[in-house]
Design goal:
Pathway: Lipid metabolism; fatty acid beta-oxidation. The chain has 30 helices and 9 strands. It is an alpha+beta fold. It is flat, with a radius of gyration of 29 Å.
């Protein structure tokens, strides 16, 4: 005991006496920190500094304030936005024949293009003073999602002008003159925009783009001016084949020092009319059979005036920051909208198909294997919509949360892929026969497009989420990095010493609280609510402690190597991601009035996230390089072992029961799904309603067949007819049963084509 007291006194003296602390702790740590600090490229540094820290910062703190989560405004549509959805969007959806668009025309019809332009679908984010709609992010997201349930091609065509742009860039960074010149024409549809960033040699590594802009003198409109000589080759550019204005990213150089001392100014963005001399619209791409316009653009020795740079001369070299911040908005609106649309469509149509389709004399929705997949569709759909709402809501708070939007982009597109695969598995042969009545095929083909664009998913998970999150969201690391970069060593050490004390206390608190919560199963952890979801808040708080502590240990031991240990860092990123996803689910549940019908879906979504968190931690512990530290971390975070499990079978069955019943809950779960009475979705929905309304009568027919009242060998139609003849049912009842059975047969039918028709 006396030895322990002595050690405690020594520790107190070391940290309490400044000179001793500086000599024995802070100065050596500062030197080590500068040594292990991972080198950052200019593009990495700008990406790190761009955007805002939001709820992700709370989750990284180890002690999230749930009242803050609940205080965020509930995202809601204005009357004007709701009216647009109910009128213009509904009109557009009725105009779309997606089979004709994708399989035959490979383009939207002219009347659809004209309608999109005339009704301001390309101007959702442009202010009213320029002729735009000036809608919120949640409206933008909802409109794109609704369209995507009918036609992915139309949805992508609408979403691109309303994300990167270049309207978004003009609104944030354009000069007054540039906004006045371009925004009215973009709003009216007179100009169709595209933005060219990706090239043959530069995808996710945008810093390596070879496209160049050389500062020089040249002739423009009959006068000699200072401008740029551009050379570029870009591919995968959506709307490029039809664009009239090209947003272009390139590296800017000033070899003759016409602007100043700097020879390399960095990535820059400019706006160029596509009919400008030297601009070449190249070949069209055909991305996985989707018909939205996508292609290439080239330019060789194209001279443009300096004021075509977005932001004018002040925008020179600021292009990467512009792109990172605006890509963040795109990741938070466009791709989450497409993913949520996948959930809404698949949940509504698959629950109907599982009811209508019969095998072995019963609906396939009664088979537990189908129920497992259907429940996963339902749970992920609830989670997708929750994440869409919360992430778009952050953008409507005038924030650009780069880590949160990267989480949304990666995990929502992956959840969308899972949902679509499950829907295809349940539909089986119905899902793979392409034709006018197949409502899944084009969405299935398009899933990899979402996985690929705006940051390939593998790199988004392995580099962005934790790579930015660990630095941006941590309360001290970025400040310590800034201190280490200071030129005055003594001032830097003083600043670092103060931060280090706080950091040590932060880590010690998280370690001790993680252990306490682990030993007590989070019994004493805080929750802002009572009832069925209270323990979920406690468990998420506990995992937040574990994440914060494990991050500190990983950064301390691995240092700059952590940047290259992508498998390790990505697992910590998965923990952060599922903390965010579960937060979104709980926030939605509260915002929507704690609907009891939603509770099984809330439980499923949160329990699945907790399970994934546990699996990510298991992978982190198992593969951490230091076995002693590995053992210690595991025992602190999970002292009694990892007991998080997948949602139960009983929960899955309760969810399927709700999904296969028509009514308010099913409508709310799938409210974005457009049901077209003239297409496959309408056929399936009508059959579902009819079969549900006659389910008791069909069960009675089966009973009569089993007990011998009716022949066991009769098909359904014959059984109905014989039941009428034997006066078991009335003629009127028989008509309803025949109608329902005919609708059922239409719904399970697949498209056929005459020889030579294709």
């Amino acid at each position: 005991m006396s030895v322990f007291v002595l050690l405690l006194v020594v520790v107190i003296v070391i940290f309490a006496v400044k000179d001793i602390r500086l000599s024995l702790v802070s100065r050596p740590t500062f030197k080590m920190f500068k040594k292990v600090l991972p080198p950052l490229s200019q593009t990495e540094r700008e990406a790190m500094e761009a955007g805002d820290v939001w709820w992700d910062g709370q989750l990284f703190s180890g002690n999230p304030d749930w009242q803050v989560l609940h205080s965020y405004p509930k995202p809601e549509l204005s009357k004007k936005e709701r009216a647009f959805l109910d009128s213009e969007v509904e009109t557009l959806l009725a105009m779309l024949d997606d089979y004709q668009i994708v399989q035959k025309d490979k383009d939207l019809p002219k009347e659809v293009w004209d309608y999109l332009k005339a009704q301001g679908f390309f101007a959702l984010i442009i202010p009213e003073k320029f002729g735009g709609r000036q809608f919120s992010a949640i409206a933008n997201s909802t409109i794109v999602a609704k369209i995507a349930t009918k036609s992915l091609t139309a949805a992508v065509t609408v979403m691109v002008p309303n994300s990167l742009g270049p309207g978004e860039l003009l609104l944030h960074y354009g000069t007054t003159e540039q906004q006045a010149r371009w925004l009215p024409n973009l709003a009216s549809g007179k100009d169709v925009p595209c933005f060219a960033l990706t090239g043959p040699e530069a995808g996710s590594d945008a810093g390596s783009i070879p496209d160049s802009g050389i500062v020089c003198k040249g002739e423009f409109e009959g006068q000699e001016v200072i401008g740029l000589r551009l050379n570029w080759s870009k591919r995968y550019i959506t709307l490029a084949p039809v664009a009239t204005v090209l947003g272009l990213a390139f590296k800017m150089y000033d070899p003759d020092s016409l602007l100043g001392k700097d020879k390399e100014l960095g990535i820059t963005c400019a706006l160029i009319p596509t009919d400008h001399p030297g601009v070449e619209t190249g070949e069209r791409h055909f991305p996985l059979n989707m018909a939205f316009m996508n292609g290439t653009t080239y330019g060789k020795d194209v001279f443009i005036p300096f004021d075509w740079i977005i932001g004018g001369q002040q925008g020179a070299g600021r292009g990467w920051r512009m792109l990172v911040e605006c890509l963040s908005a795109g990741r938070g609106i466009s791709l989450p909208a497409l993913s949520s649309a996948t959930g809404h469509l698949c949940a509504r149509m698959t629950s109907a198909y599982a009811t209508v389709r019969q095998q072995f004399g019963v609906s396939i929705g009664q088979f537990e294997g189908v129920q497992e997949a259907l429940a996963r569709i339902g749970g992920l759909t609830y989670s997708l919509e929750a994440c869409r709402l919360m992430t778009a809501g952050a953008i409507d708070l005038k924030l650009s949360p780069s880590v949160v939007t990267a989480i949304a982009k990666y995990h929502m597109t992956e959840m969308g892929r899972t949902v679509m695969n499950d829907a295809m598995d349940i539909h089986s042969g119905k899902g793979i026969q392409v034709g006018p009545n197949n409502y899944l095929a084009h969405g299935y083909m398009g899933i990899p497009v979402s996985i690929t664009v705006e940051g390939a998913n593998i790199l988004t998970r392995n580099l962005m989420i934790f790579g930015q999150g660990a630095t941006r969201c941590h309360p001290f690391v970025l400040k310590e990095m800034e201190a280490a970069a200071m030129e005055d060593d003594e001032l830097a050490l003083k600043e670092f010493d103060s931060l280090l004390q706080q950091h040590i206390l932060f880590a010690a608190t998280n370690a001790s609280m993680a252990l306490i919560h682990g030993l007590t199963r989070s019994y004493f952890a805080k929750s802002p609510v009572c009832g069925a979801t209270a323990d979920y808040y406690k468990q998420l708080g506990r995992m937040s402690r574990g994440l914060a502590f494990c991050t500190d240990v990983a950064m301390l031991i691995l240092g700059g190597e952590l940047k290259r240990k992508e498998m390790i860092s990505a697992r910590l990123g998965d923990v952060l991601s599922h903390l965010y996803l579960a937060s979104c689910v709980l926030k939605r549940f509260e915002d929507e009035g704690r609907q009891q019908a939603d509770l099984p879906f809330v439980k499923y979504a949160v329990e699945l996230s907790l399970f994934e968190i546990g699996q990510a931690f298991n992978g982190f512990f198992k593969n951490f390089s230091n076995p002693v530290v590995n053992f210690a971390l595991k025992r602190i975070v999970f002292p009694f072992g990892n007991h998080y499990h997948r949602p139960s079978d009983d929960l899955a069955q309760a969810m399927c029961e709700r999904m296969t019943q028509p009514g308010v809950f099913r409508n709310r779960l799938t409210h974005l799904c457009y049901v077209d009475d003239k297409a496959g979705t309408g056929v399936m929905e009508n059959a579902f309603i009819a079969m549900h309304n006659t389910s008791d009568a069909f069960k009675q027919l089966k009973k009569w067949q089993r007990d011998g009242t009716l022949s066991r060998n009769d098909d359904i139609e014959t059984a109905i007819t014989n039941a009428i003849e034997k006066q078991l049912i009335t003629a009127e009842q028989g008509v309803k049963l025949h109608e329902a059975n005919n609708l059922r047969k239409q719904a399970i039918a697949v498209d056929n084509f005459q020889p030579g028709e294709l």
